[in-house]
Amino acid sequence: MSTAPGKTSGALQGVRVLEISSLSGAVCGRVLADLGAEVIKIEPAGGEKARSDAPLIPTANGEESASWLAYNFGKKSVVADLDTDAGLADFGHLAKSADIIVTDFQRLSLADMDRLEPIARAANPAVVWTEILPFGRGHEYEDMAATDTTLQALGGHLYLNGEVDREPVRIGLPVGLVQAGAEASNAALMAYYHALRTGEGQRVDLSVQEVVIWTLLNTTMAWQILSLNEMRGGAIRKERANRFYTRLVWPCQDGYVVFGPVGGGGGSARIKSYAALLKWMAEEGVTDDILTRHDWNGDGQFAIPQEDYDAVTEVIKGFIETKTSGELIARAVRDRILMAPINSIKDIHENVQFRDRGLFKPLQDPDRGLEFELPANWVRMSETGLAEMAPAPAVGADTAALLAEVSKVKEAS
Amino acid sequence: MTKGIFEGLKVADFTWAAAGPIATKQLADNGATVVKIESFKHPDSIRLGGPFIDDKPGINRSGFFADFHSSKLGIGVDMNHEDALEIIRPLIEWADIVAESFRPGIMKKWGLDYDSLRKINPRIIMLSSSLYGADGPWSQHPGYGAQGAALAGIQHMTGWPDMPPAVPKGAYSDSVSPRYALSALMAALIHREKTGEGQYVEMSQIEATAQLVAPQLLDLQVTGREAQRAGNVKPNSILHGVFPCKGEERWITLECETEPQWQALASLLGDLDGLTKARATDSEALNAHVSQLTAPMDAFELMETCRQAGVPAGVAYKGSDLLEDPILEARDHFWPLHHEEMGTLKYNGPAYRYDKTPGQLRSASPRLGEHTDQVLKDVLGFTANDLAGFRDKGLLQ
Description:
Mean pLDDT of chain B: 96
Structural class of chain A: alpha/beta
Order of helices and strands of chain A: EHEEEHEHEHEHHEHHEEEEHHHEHHEEEH
CATH class of the largest domain in chain A: Alpha Beta
Order of helices and strands of chain B: EHEHEHEHHEHHEHHEEHHHHEHHEEEHH
CATH superfamily of the largest domain in chain B: Crotonobetainyl-coa:carnitine coa-transferase, domain 1
Strand content of chain A: 15-25%
Number of helices of chain B: 17
Mean pLDDT of chain A: 94
Strand order of the largest sheet of chain B: 3-2-1-4-5-6
CATH superfamily of the largest domain in chain A: Crotonobetainyl-coa:carnitine coa-transferase, domain 1
Number of domains of chain A: 2
Number of domains of chain B: 2
Shape of chain A: elongated
Distance between the termini of chain A: 26 Å
Structural class of chain B: alpha/beta
CATH topology of the largest domain in chain B: Rossmann fold
Helix content of chain A: 25-40%
CATH architecture of the largest domain in chain B: 3-Layer(aba) Sandwich
Low-confidence stretches of chain B: none
Low-confidence stretches of chain A: none
CATH topology of the largest domain in chain A: Rossmann fold
Oligomer: heterodimer
Distance between the termini of chain B: 35 Å
């Protein structure tokens, strides 16, 4: 795997990962591949089910999954039927050569995981067996059906999203599963670090529910400390266990910005941000007693009445509505106002900060007739590079070569 | 007691707010010695965010702060003091990892950028995690995870089509970034284990979070379609929604992707004919009909029945429900830890379990400067006289 000039190859060069996956396992493999690991997908004949996950895009092969392509580029593919002796023998040979194996509940049943792990372990005691389960192991619900939406709910995040007068609303992305994949990559690497130093492999079991809990940040503390169950809100909500509502989403001329000018907690950055906003408003002749009636971001913010929060919000809202998103952000960046545009997908693709940092890397995939960019450059490492962009594998593209390699190793040993 | 994975690993932790501390917490909970360095004149900002014990703000009273600082030691140093390096330099010599999450430039101002650190300790691994990244036109713009979520598309994808975007709870990008940061940090540690070479790892929270919309970015480029927020609609499912149940603010998610799941749900809701008719009309009619049927039902009982029938279902848990969830209890997800000022609180443990090297939350969050003397004496080898000298010149709290 070659890398940028002056750098050795990826930090995980020489690490071999087997992936028996759907979405979340593939995201785990994605992170490991980005960091330089060789990731080999083990697929059934005809390819894994996630190859047809929505959204589908037209390619030279007909239709393929954008999600699958985005999370599986640069990997290898071996076809093995894990329900036959021959397939299990191939799996054992591959496991012997591997450092990490990752799987997830949408691809394998718990019974299949229990069947495969001992085969891998017998072949390779040092291997890290990583499984992504809805609720983890160790209880009567470990084999229950679940989906990303189920887990957004049972992780406590769903309840906190949406308008107060409608039902809770999910994040419209499979965030539980994707975040679980990313979490599995670091949990697996920690176990691999241990195996590297001691020769001891082990099982890592990961709960998507617990991954979602780690998106809440202070919800379980708010209940324990204040007997307060936080309530959802849309543009206006109670933040950070506050007892009062503040506006967080502000309409501007051409979209929305997110901004917490008042009552968002303490810290000098918030105080300076509010002062910079007032200065800008004053320059344009917008003044009002309410703007300076309280120390809006100081210690007393928790005691300010709701009607005053509402009144200050009206004045600020009137000002923001006269500006475009571009005007707001230019000034915000210049004067350190704690504001950001609510980027659409297109906005992300064009965002000046992402562009300037080189987040996007081009990928040519002539066999599919595709050429696109992905946000692949997500970390800068001074001594080791990230993997080069290469197309996602055709089903079984590497079966012959890899099985020949591992069976040769077997014969030699 | 089995030793944690990182027994013997030493971390000088300058991170603050959420994303950085959540990453270093996991090193600490898995056995690393993590020393959190706080500038006592400018303590960690989330010490100023609620919930506060007894509802009274105070520097050592925030549950928000506490949850991200289990198993860590805390020292208070005036980082802007001209002699701060008298204490920090030996800490860098001691450390395997230096982690920080300040606005880019702060570490350099203190003489602690990577080039300076590696001169002190050539094997050092340094992690810098910031909201926007170390360079680029926005690098100096201050911000929080709610801004990060907005920039990375999470807010765009959340809410109702007829309403402004609904801000997802919390500083969402602060929850994504640590997962990627830890993987990169682990890769650097593994590389060092194999080659002896340390390195600098630099990350942006919004770049990590943008990984969640990689498929949508690809779809946009190939087809021109731009994904939009769509409430609780999920294409290609027979049923997918959030439905009311009995009681105040009780909701359940129900989902049918297959005909057997649909049959099972229709049967346990007890109205196959009505549901079949509603399904034939449209999803709006179906959701309305399901809502009528679930409204008088107990959410937890319905979830249990669905689970037995193989239908994905989840009560929209409130904070209090999480603390009573039998699965989380069986998993020992929450760790009761005692803190001098806050009493005993249940801290969140990691989302993963190791069967050979279990993690352990060893102690509650440090009070500001709680371990200053302990760390300076036991870890760095300073004498009582040294400490008195540092205090005399205002270096220590």
